[in-house]
Amino acid sequence: MAEADINRETELKLAAQPEDFDRLRAAPAIADRAAGPAATRTLESTYYDTEDRRLAARKVTLRVRKTGDGFVQTVKSAPDEDGIGRGEWECAVTSATPDLTLIADEAAIDLLGPLGESELQPVFTSIVERTTQDVTLGEGDGAARIEIAFDRGSIMLPDGRSRELCEVELELKEGTPAALYELAQDLAKAAPLRLEMRSKAERGHALANGEADKAVKAEKLLLDPETTVEGAVARIVRACLAHMIANEAVTLAGEDPEGVHQMRVALRRLRSATALFRPFIPTVQYLWLVGEIKWLAGSLGPARDWDVFGEELLAPVRDAFHRADGHGRSAVEDLDTLAAAAEAKRLRAYEGVREAIRSDRYTAFLLGVGGWVEKRGWRDQPVSEESVRLFQPVIGLADHLLNKRHRKAKRAGHGFAHLPVAQRHQLRIALKKLRYAVEFFRSLYDDKPVRRYIQQLAAFQDALGHLNDVATATRLLHELHDDGSRSAPGEPRAAGIVIGWHARGVADTEAALVALWHDFIDTKHFWSKPDPAV
Q1: If both were cysteines, with which of 120, 183, 292, 416 could 48 make a disulfide (CB 3.0 to 4.6 Å apart)?
Q2: pLDDT > 70? residue 251
């Protein structure tokens, strides 16, 4: 049984409801695996930072926790790429005030950087009632020991503002990280749980800074030439999951359309990655992944479609008529009526989004994919010429995969000037897959030509995207009253105005679209020509 590194913390957080704690503690996943009695204590932790929040900017944590009659000072690094591991250094101190002179480990000292105690100030405090229980999974050398902590309490600021917290922490003491996901999946069968990727420190700083949940784009992925194919698969899948989870909160709020958009981008990237590495993934696993991705994307899709219709298609037309100084007043009223009907449809679509994100199936999907990565589930297949390549450097495969995606996009756009809308949509999908592949592998190549290539792809993709949005708008307007409701007077006229307005715009941009296609064809590759034998 491997023992966890003394200077590392590996844990999985699960958001829960307090009324479910008793049910979770009594679940077979804990009751049948308990090693010793449970213990309950109150933890009071004060988190420190500089006035300009230098530590928070790097996701570094400095806290002092009161435990019984003593105090423990802890330094934590930013999370690892897997999202569940991080560096952790602890030492006893004499009071709730940090004492940096007692930090002996060079890694922790380097992490804090040039920092004087006089610069530190308390930012927030968490007071938590914690009940812990150790459990053992498995037997013999493959067994894992996990400490389960049931935390209920609050994060409080000096000015009185607070945020409640209720979560279950699974901390690996011995064994492999895959055991955390196995236990989490078992617990999720006993009560509703949600994966929580934000630390208490991150939530406390967000409260202190008055930050609302914001939509975030995918972070740049870093691979190096020594990364193996399976290492690349693991990093890419983790990055897609992290991107999606980071946009959950803003999507649930439903006020910023970018949230659901970024969740869908993360899902498309994940599906593109599974297709890219399809030869290395066993069929049953691949079909499960694709099926769950399709389900979730389908749950998020209507909300995104109505967001785009309202903001990018209907709004410009309404604004133009509203600026017409009274001309076309009846059309203005019709467009306002259509906007109200579309907004009602959008709000209903977001109800579906919330239902999906809060569902047991969503949690099972996240935990299933996370566990699959940690266990390297793709190894569960017969040894073959393809499976052996999982352990070879990905740089030897990247050229081949990029060239393959590029050729597919060229074939999809052949005869572009005469392609109908449906085939142009297929070209757009091929371009997206190509762009995601480029973004996955870009750190393996010189950045300047990669950046130029991505910019060229993005310009063409965006132009085709507007064409697709106009086609989608026609479908949406036909679905506006598919619930059996009646359209208001003037709605059909307003719908015709919107479609006609943008159809004219599409016609006016045809020459520019054809030019962008030729620019794409003429764009130089930044990758080397692959070996035909690959």
Answers
A1: 120
A2: yes
The residues facing 8 across adjacent strands are 87
Q: Is 171 within 8 Å of 134 (Cβ atoms)?
A: no
Tokens 């037997």 — which residue? 139
pLDDT per residue over 269-310, tens digit each? 999 999 999 999 999 999 999 999 999 999 999 999 999 999
CB-CB contact of 35 with 64 (8 Å): no
> What distance in Å separates the CA atoms of residue 365 and residue 297, rounded to the nearest whole number?
13
Can you tell me which residue has the tokens 């928070």? Answer: 56
Max mean pLDDT among 184-188, 205-209, 506-510 falls in 184-188
Q: Quick one: which of 354, 22, 386, 8 has its CA closest to 177? A: 8
> Could you tell me the pLDDT band of residue 6, with boundaries at 50, 70 and 90?
low
DSSP annotation of 215: -
Alpha-carbon separation of residue 389 from 279, 393, 437 (angstroms):
10, 8, 18
Give mean pLDDT, residues 14-26: 95
Closest listed residue to residue 178, CA positions, set 219, 208, 131, 143: 143
Which residue from 470, 420, 530 is spatially nearest to 412, judged by alpha carbons?
Answer: 420
Q: How many CA atoms lie within 13 A of 430 on its CB side?
A: 19
Handedness of CA 366, 368, 370, 373 (dihedral sign): negative
DSSP bridge partners of 228: 393
Q: Percentage of residues in the chain with pLDDT exceeding 70?
A: 97
Do residues 234 and 274 touch, judged by C-beta distance below 8 A? no
Question: Binning pLDDT at 50, 70 and 90, where does residue 8 land?
Answer: confident
**In the prediction, which pLDDT does 325 show?**
60
- Which residue carries 């498309």 as its tokens? 268
Distance CA 298, CA 300 (A): 5
Residue 17: closest CA among 199, 184, 166 = 166
DSSP at 529: P
- How would residue 212 be classed by pLDDT, with cut points 50, 70 and 90? confident
**How far is it, in rounded angstroms, from Cα 325 to Cα 3?**
74
Nearest partner of 125 among 169, 209, 65, 69, judged by Cα: 65
User: Closest Cα partner for 477 from 323, 305, 317, 336?
Assistant: 305
Q: Please check whether residue 466 is in contact with residue 306, taking contact to mean a CB–CB distance below 8 angstroms.
A: no
On whether the CB atoms of residues 91 and 72 are closer than 8 A, the answer is yes
Instruction: Round to whole Å and give the CA distance between 505 and 499.
Output: 10
- Region 167-195 average pLDDT: 95
- Residue 517's pLDDT is what? 92
| Polymer length of the chain | 534
